[in-house]
Amino acid sequence: MNVVVLAKYVPNPNGVPEMGSDFRLKREGVEGALDPGDEHAVEAALQLAEHTGGEVTIVSMGPEVALSGVRRALSMGAHKAVMITDDLLKGADVLVTARVLAAAVRRLEFDLVIGGVESTDGSTGTLPMTVAELLGLPSATFARRIELKDGTVMVERQTESGYDTVECPLPAVVTVTAAVNDPRYPTLKGIMQAKQKPLEHLAVGDLGLSADEVRPTQEVVGVEPMADRAAGEVVEDASQAPTRVVEFLTKAKVI
Amino acid sequence: MAGIWVYAEIGAGGKVEPSALELLTKARELAAGVAAVALGPGATQAASTLGEFGAETVYASDDPVFTDYLAQPAAHALHQLAVQHQPELILFGPTYDSRDVAGRVQARTGSTLMTNVTDILTTDYAQTQIFGGTRIVDVTLSGPDPKLLIARPKAFAAEPSGGKAAVVPVEVLVPDECKKVRRVQSHAEAGTGPKLEDAKVVISGGRGLQDPANFELLGELAAAIGNAAVGASRAVVDAGWVPYSMQIGQTGKTVKPEVYIAVGISGATQHMVGMKEARRIIAINKDKDAPIFSIADLGIVGDALSIVPKIIDQIRAAKG
């Protein structure tokens, strides 16, 4: 089966991101990487394609620098990639991003689209569902386990109290949590091969979208620091610690 | 017609998902004529609770199609209702199902969708927090109505208005193409004792516990304290030590207990977002430079594995 992965390049996934004077995250000129959540999506796609015989295509939107995220996915083993870069997309919100990704996916032949649950930088957590609806596809979201069965995908879907077993026909959109797998590390061979793999560059005009359709509907108009919670008492003498904790709990009237 | 709607999830026996009551309370502060949409078994029964918290109208359907199949039937019905009644704003709780529905409605309406909302100032002006809740971001919303907002858990306190809702039955035919993703079976993994969101004390464990088996120690501490629940950091959930339903943080649950005890958790921003609004915070960690200490009212520098058993002994002794 052919699998498409929606992948995002995020600035400083393990550090503190920086914000520019335009209240947008700095995406260029800072360290960045393929979103760690998307590595699970790439791994899930690779496993499915390997078992069934098929190709994995990465679809990503972002500035030029975001190519390194796509390359990471290719070096993990994905077969080809589509990268959408356009100045019109600076400051794109989730609706714009969903329209762009859906338009790019629509041009491909696929059985399944896989995404992460939410991006590390924006944390919106709804984009894949919007893409699914735009494509007229069913979706099984928040999957911690995926299994193919007779032309359907069986998913263990995370819930507030446990999980649901969900049956979803193909083609479909699935989002995966970090529990679904352990992403592989690219091998040296994989890294070398990634440079030769097909990579298509597209702009908004290539996708048949108008400037109106990629105009964001959200604008950040201010950012203020939050009143900090101050650090309190610190006990470094371990022998005193249990007593202090019990006194604290007693004073808080919880025991 | 204007107005603010709350998409209210209904659980077993007509129990309203708590976030819906929080959102109704906020909605009635912003505008008159608040309505709730409740879809699935128990919806009609839930109308009285929704009315009590501020819904003047409840669009209700008890049709099991809304729980038997994921997202698509509910998104279809909610969109149809919105086309018919033209609300300005629809508010959603942060649950998995609501996120699915909101994302799909957005594709149909082409309207703006903002998540992690921590405050709503007007129908086109909302706030969120970023960088682990250290900054407040003001966002203006434009584009076609209804604007779609998904709130952070516990962003607002639920308070009853003592009102009563008029129930309007939802008469939307759900087409077969929306009945695609079937919920085959639900499995509960939550432990015994109080829910994380309701417990007076939440004790969470992280990598510093060294081994999954040591989580039992936190269970013992919770039992000794009473009305306490055990949570976890993302690191140990991702490592498979404990189920996702125990995760506290940005991608997990948000708690506001009387006391939060972080055991062996360093305090990644993703974790702090989910617990920093606890009334009081105790942190136990070996590393005195761990970020968690910067927000702890009581910081214990030391080995949790030797300290926690002593705390349990002292509490048991004190309680006799």
Q: Please, could you describe this protein's structure?
A:
- The complex is a heterodimer of chains A (255) and B (320).
- Chain A is an alpha/beta fold and 255 residues long.
- Helices cover 26% and strands 29% of the residues of chain A.
- Chain A has six helices and 13 strands.
- Chain A has helices at residues 36-52, 67-76, 94-106, 127-135, 188-194, 241-251, and strands at 3-7, 9-11, 32-34, 56-61, 80-84, 112-116, 139-149, 152-158, 162-169, 172-176, 199-202, 218-225, 233-235.
- Chain A has a nine-stranded mixed β-sheet with strand order 9-8-7-10-6-1-4-5-11, with helices on both faces. Chain A has a two-stranded antiparallel ribbon with strand order 2-3.
- In chain A, a hairpin with a 3-residue loop joins strand 8 (152-158) and strand 9 (162-169).
- In chain A, helix 2 crosses helix 5 (188-194) and helix 3 (94-106) packs across helix 4 (127-135).
- The longest helix of chain A has 17 residues, at 36-52.
- Chain A is globular, with a radius of gyration of 21 Å.
- Chain A starts with a strand and ends with a helix.
- The model of chain A has no long low-confidence stretch (mean pLDDT 93).
- Chain B has helices spanning 18-30, 43-52, 65-68, 72-85, 96-109, 215-225, 234-238, 269-272, 304-319; strands at 4-8, 35-39, 57-61, 89-92, 113-122, 125-130, 135-141, 147-151, 166-169, 182-188, 201-205, 228-232, 259-263, 280-285, 298-301.
- Chain B has 320 residues and is an alpha/beta fold.
- In chain B, the strands form two sheets. Chain B has a nine-stranded mixed β-sheet, with helices on both faces. Chain B has a five-stranded parallel β-sheet with strand order 12-11-13-14-15.
- In chain B, helix 4 (72-85) packs across helix 5 (96-109) and helix 6 (215-225) packs parallel to helix 9 (304-319).
- Chain B is 28% helix and 26% strand.
- The radius of gyration of chain B is 21 Å and the shape is elongated.
- Chain B contains nine helices and 15 strands.
- The termini of chain B are far apart.
